[in-house]
Amino acid sequence: MASPTTATAPAILPVTQSSPPPPPPITLEPLYAGHTRFELELEFVSMLSSPLYLNHLAALKLLQAPDFVAYLKYLQYWTRPEYITFLSYPGPTIRALELLQEERFRREVLSPEVVGKLMQEGVRGSLEFQGR
Question: 3-state DSSP call for residue 32?
Fold first, then answer.
């Protein structure tokens, strides 16, 4: 038996080249290309904070497709407080989700002038947020 003043070294297990990696965590949610639906939707919704991306979606005519418009309506759950905390740019993202619910905005975001105005509002909003 070791005395109270004598410390014993912890046992170190050898790792060999043939040791398999630990198994991945078990998830009940299906994965799409290795990502959960939550991760994919978070990435997409975050991209909506960019006026240039909104213009790109309009140029592809996605904002006119009824299925895509329905998907944008479904994404409104990101406006709830428990989901807003995951957004990097909550203000512009939520604003874009609101604007995309309007048919007129979905048509007009194709215009460079509208995109420019959105970009100016975004810069002005970030400067106000920083206290300038």
Answer: strand
